[in-house]
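Hi P.,

Sorry for the delay on this. The queue was packed all week, but I finally got your sequence through. Input first:
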Amino acid sequence: MSTHSPGPEWSGDMLENPAMTEAFASQLRAVLRGQADFVARVRRDAEAMWKANPPAGYGTFEAWWRHRWVTSPFAEIQEHLEKAATLTFELEARYRKGRHEIPAARQAAALAKKNGHQAAAVPPGTPPRPVQAPAAPAAGGGFLDLIRNESA
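Then the structure:
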């Protein structure tokens, strides 16, 4: 029995589109922040329950130690989730730079170099050919909406 939804198959090359990368990173960020909020609520409740119902038979130090032993993993998990959410900005920036900005700059430099070599062969007074700018990414929609639209 499969729990896979009958939608389009996802592959890493879908992140070639800057809009899809941005949508993916923002949705991943939202999920991670939601999970961090959930862990924070559980942590807050666990700490309140422990303080309201201290176990009988423990001394002050042992009660403190056990409280710390129970609640500190929640804090660590919450910190890791929050760090992962902030790393989505780096993910988005690296993909944008590595997949779009650097290749576009290299292509523009190669085109300029090629046009420089061709300029000698072009008669004087001929206007240069215009270079087309890359198309702007489409705004709106989430990552899954972009995948559905692309496969349709």
